Amino acid sequence: MRYKVIGNTMPAVEVIFDREGESMYTQSGGMAWMSDGISMDTNTNGGVLKGIGRMFAGESLFMAHYTAKKQGAMIAFASTVAGEILPLNIGETGGMICQKGAFLCAEPSVQLNVAFTKKFSSGLFGGEGFILQDITGHGMVFLEIDGDKVVKELAPGEVIKVDTGNVVAFEKTVSYEIETVKGLKNIFLGGEGLFLTKLTGPGKVVLQTQNFNEFAGRIARYIPSK
C-alpha cells in the first residue's frame, strides 16, 4: 500500500492499495471517501471483550475493515478536529502507548489493545490517563493530533511534565505517572487543574499543542441551557 497525507487545517490520509486483498481498519465512522472496488466488513476486531476495552479507551466497540478488490483502489480517512495526522511504522518503533482517541486507522497487522497505567492512582486521579492504547505489531498506523505536533527525545532520566490532554503518544521505554500540583494557591488559582503527567526518558514523546477536551469545555460554557 501507499499513502499520502492531504490537507492542512483538517487533514486526511489517502491510502492506495497496490494489490487485491490489502486492507485497512478504522473505528466506526472513520472513513471519509473511497473509490470503487473496496469491500467493507464491520466486526469487534478480536472479540466482544476486546471491543469493550477499546470503548473505555475512547474508541468504538466495532471496527470497520476495508479490503481492496482490485489493484489501485483508494480510501481516505479524515481527522475529526483541526490538527495533523502522524504516520508511524509501528514495527520500527517497537510499539507505542497512545492516549485515548489518538487512533485513526491502521493495517490489519497492527494490534490495538487497552493498556492500564502501572499505578492505579495515575488513572483514577489523572483524568485522561488510566486507560491508554497499546499499539503493537508491524505495519503502518496513523494517529490524530489536535493542533500542532511537538516531538521530544528524552534522554535517560530526563523528565518532562505535561498537561495530560496534551500527550499524544510515547515509546514504551518512557515511564508514565501522574504528579499532583503542589500548593493550594496553584491548585485553586493556577487554572491548570490538580494533576500533571510526568514522563521520564529514555525515549520519544509526541505532544500536541491543543487539548481538545479543554477546548470543548470552553465552548460548552457559551451553549445556552434550558
Secondary-structure blueprint:
Layout: E1 2-6, E2 12-16, E3 23-27, E4 31-34, E5 38-43, H1 48-56, E6 63-68, E7 74-78, E8 83-89, H2 90-93, E9 96-98, E10 103-106, E11 110-116, H3 120-125, E12 131-137, E13 140-146, E14 149-154, E15 159-162, E16 167-171, E17 175-180, H4 184-189, E18 195-200, E19 203-208, H5 212-220
Antiparallel strand pairs: 1-2, 2-7, 3-6, 3-10, 4-7, 5-6, 8-13, 9-12, 9-16, 10-13, 11-12, 14-19, 15-18, 16-19, 17-18
What does this molecule look like?
There is one protein chain. The protein has a six-stranded antiparallel beta sheet with strand order 5-6-3-10-13-8. It has a six-stranded antiparallel beta sheet with strand order 11-12-9-16-19-14. The chain contains five helices and 19 strands. The chain has one domain (2-220): Mitochondrial biogenesis AIM24 (Double-stranded beta-helix), CATH 3.60.160. The longest helix has 9 residues, at 48-56. The protein is α+β, with helices and mostly antiparallel strands and 226 residues long.
